[in-house]
Specification:
single chain
Length: about 280
């Protein structure tokens, strides 16, 4: 069994079942933690709205949908639209089928579901069980720690091995651009959160170790949620809409004004057999 799951603190309590926010509430007011979460949510909304206004993504989607509707070959019924929506939710969003059955998809799913577990359990523990007098069901700390580990594994797998500029363009892994802000802040928040939780549960008293990682945890979250406009955070909201529009366009025959697939054999030449396609 993984050592993290059986590691005990000096009170004999399994660390992965400890609510770190309940311990933090002994020195930081619960209302302050809850206010921080609310502010982070507002920053996401504000950053996304600014991104929408500046880049006009939503305006493009609506205008493209109007054009596609005019060239539609059939009018979809309510049941057909419902089927398309459900297919999009299950295939394109929940399982990211567009990435194919490979490493990129596995890393994406690992990081995505890890992040979802990490965020949801954080909100539940802060708003429902942060008071030290309340007993936190062990499920939520387990989901919090597990989600953080999944996020780190998926994020690092992508960062070091699967990024297009590293995997296909031979760029060094340490080359950082503005678009990398989201994944780096995501990995950092989970990583610093895990270390802070571990050190805090050891009851270090006047030592500074856990305080340093708590500050790093807070800073990484400020960068993650406050940097929506400059990172790829907002893409999480655009991609489901784009996937739904694409599937609806295929179902009604408009195909986003693109020509249908050619009814001819696929001929790529002998070069396609020499190596797996990975150059974009």
């Amino acid at each position: 069994m993984n050592r993290l799951f059986v590691l005990l603190n000096n009170k004999g309590v399994t660390l992965i079942t400890v609510n770190p926010f309940s311990i933090l509430a002994e020195i930081v007011p619960t209302t302050a933690m809850q206010a921080f979460v609310i502010v982070m949510g507002l920053l996401v909304v504000l950053g996304t709205l600014v991104d929408i206004i500046h880049k006009k993504n939503v305006k493009y989607f609506f205008e493209n949908a109007k054009k596609a509707k005019k060239s539609a070959k059939k009018i979809l019924t309510a049941s057909e639209k419902t089927t398309v929506v459900l297919k999009t939710l299950v295939s394109d969003i929940a399982t990211t089928s567009e990435l194919g059955a490979g490493k990129r998809r596995a890393a994406h799913l690992l990081g995505m579901y890890g992040t979802i577990l990490f965020w949801i359990s954080s909100v539940i523990m802060i708003f429902c069980y942060a008071n030290p007098s309340l007993e936190t069901p062990s499920l939520w700390p387990i989901l919090w720690h597990t989600g953080a580990i999944m996020t780190i594994l998926g994020g690092c797998w992508f960062w070091f091995f699967l990024r297009v500029d590293v995997y296909s363009e031979a760029q060094p892994w340490y080359r950082i651009i503005k678009a990398d802000l989201f994944v780096l802040a995501l990995i950092a928040s989970s990583f610093f959160g895990l270390i802070w939780s571990f050190l805090q549960s050891l009851n270090l008293n006047d030592r500074w170790d856990d305080k340093v990682f708590l500050i790093l945890f807070i800073i990484s979250n400020l960068v993650l949620f406050g940097g929506v406009y400059w990172s790829k955070f907002a893409h999480m909201f655009y991609k489901p809409g784009a996937a739904l529009q694409k599937n609806l366009a295929e179902a009604d025959g408009s195909r986003d004004n693109m020509p249908p697939p050619a009814d001819a054999p696929e001929k790529f030449g002998l070069g396609i057999k020499r190596e797996a396609p990975k150059h974009y």
